[in-house]
Design a protein that fits this description.
The chain is α+β, with helices and mostly antiparallel strands. It has 9 helices and 22 strands. The site of zinc ion has 3 residues, from loops.
């Protein structure tokens, strides 16, 4: 017998709740396979189910969750009791922005369900990928395939009814070896989302062979490469580095709950102020960034968020000027109230929880930078006098308000007089967020644009790990501090 969720939601509003919703996960499965030097080092499999209830009463949220379906009513009652208890302490009554009430279904594009592929078949493929990496000079090889499959049903007191069926796959290959100074060098490949799918079919071995050969060759080059030069120079970021730059210094900085001061306990502030919207020059006129949850092939696309708001494509930075944020129904009303003007015209549909037993909060969707008009990667290199081309994120350190950063990368290449010279090891760069984006001097065209995924974005207390994407082109920044 299926449980009548809508009846329980009505029971909440009958008892004085101004709003209630439930997210029911009939099933969520996750597999992680980790092969190290040809041996299966770990195989983690988890399966959960449960539901989470949010109730808004007397201006305060109450939340409760359970995986016990034998008495769901008790969990609804607990959520209402929690809201009423919280209401005694709440100073600013919560109001939700209006939304279009939707009944809909979202299914992520998937031709081959990875959970229907046998363990033997997965192991055979991982062995094949490992074989591509097993070359002289490579000391460590890693092949990781993580897969997720979940169904979520959502109902709220405003009449929304949504079902989401999501499959995602996060594969990667990596090689490592010690260089002549005894420092470990690494190269990795995580396939960008260029196609239209999120299923097992992206594991087709042919597409991996060339990339495996490339990262092995680059690792060998790193082992004898000179170190990164130091000084002010141009930095060209490949998409597999640019995505993290965007993630840390545009994405997190523009989460509206951070801007309003809600995430401070998790190093989660932002230098952005409410008065900055519509005014702040965040970057050069070449910078246009958006939160686009409508890309079909990314883990940052989910159809409807956990406020029941449909996926949107919204500008964050328009030709250098800050115009938008990553928003939920709750935060946009609070921000508009605090600012004394209407900055936000409704939720941007970016409110998500990572599991049934976590509360939804502002999470990145696909935080993208639009392709530009500066041609291909080779065109940009040709017009660069002196600089470094950087690829592969290795380590990062970011100010808690996202106003400054320091990144190291797996690999670099020296660029002199418009020519790519040779490989550089131990590359790094740093800067102040606004100065850096204002120095953006070239943005690659669509041929350089890739959707990179993030499967481990952490936020919230208790912690939530979220999956999302970044569609980014090759970008060049000038007068950047390199090599320290
Ligand atoms: Zn993150």
């Amino acid at each position: 017998m299926t449980f009548d969720w809508k009846k329980q939601i009505r029971r909440m509003t009958d008892q004085g709740a101004s709003y209630a919703d439930v997210r029911y996960y009939p099933s969520e499965e996750e597999d992680v396979l980790f092969m190290w030097n040809g041996n299966l080092l770990a195989f983690d499999r988890s399966a959960t189910s449960g539901f989470g209830v949010r109730v808004l009463a007397d201006g305060a949220w109450g939340f409760a969750a359970s995986s016990n379906l034998s008495d769901p009513e008790a969990t609804f009652d607990q959520a209402l009791a929690n809201a009423k208890a919280a209401a005694k302490r709440v100073q600013r009554p919560i109001r939700l922005a209006d939304k279009e009430v939707v009944k809909g279904r979202f299914e992520s594009p998937c031709q081959e369900d990875p959970f229907l592929i046998s363990l033997d078949e997965k192991m055979r493929l991982m062995k094949e990928l490992d074989g591509y990496l097993a070359q002289p000079g490579v000391e460590q090889r890693r092949v990781v395939i993580s897969t997720v499959k979940k169904t979520i049903r959502y109902y709220d007191s405003e009449g929304a009814e949504i079902e989401k069926a999501i499959v995602d796959i996060f594969p990667s290959i990596q090689v490592a070896a010690m260089d002549r100074d005894g420092v470990q060098q690494e190269r990795k490949y995580l396939p960008p989302r260029l196609g239209s799918s999120r299923g097992w079919e992206i594991m087709e071995p042919g597409r991996w062979r060339d990339e495996a050969r490339r990262i092995v060759d680059e690792l060998k080059g790193l082992l004898t490469a000179p170190p990164c030069p130091k000084g002010l120079m141009s930095v060209i970021l490949m998409p597999d580095m640019m995505f993290l730059q965007v993630h840390e210094t545009i994405g997190h900085a523009l989460e509206l709950d951070r801007i309003l001061g809600y995430e401070l306990s998790y190093a989660g502030g932002s230098f952005v102020r409410l008065e900055d919207f519509g005014r702040l020059q965040y970057g050069s006129a070449k910078l246009t960034a958006r939160a686009d949850a409508t890309l079909i092939n990314s883990p940052g696309s989910f159809g409807y968020d956990d406020d029941g708001v449909a996926a949107q494509n919204r500008l964050l930075i328009d030709r250098g000027i800050l115009v938008g944020a990553i928003t939920s129904r709750q935060m946009v009303t609070e921000a508009n109230d605090k600012a004394g003007r209407q900055i936000f015209d409704g939720s941007g549909g970016a409110c998500r929880a990572c599991a049934f037993n976590r509360v939804p909060l502002e999470r990145m969707t696909n935080i993208n930078v639009d392709p530009g008009e500066d041609g291909s990667l080779e065109d940009i290199i040709r017009k660069t006098e002196r600089g470094v081309l950087l690829s592969g994120e290795k380590s990062w350190s970011i100010g808690s308000n996202r106003e400054q950063f320091h990144f190291a990368t797996d690999i670099g290449w020296l660029i002199e007089d418009g020519v790519r010279k040779h490989i550089l090891k131990n590359c790094s760069y740093s800067g102040m967020t606004l100065d850096f984006y204002r120095s953006l001097s070239a943005v690659g065209d669509a041929s350089t644009w890739e959707v990179q995924y993030v499967d481990n974005c952490g936020k919230g207390v208790p912690g939530q790990v979220m999956q999302l994407g970044h569609g980014v082109p090759v970008c060049r920044f000038d007068q950047v501090k390199v090599g320290d």
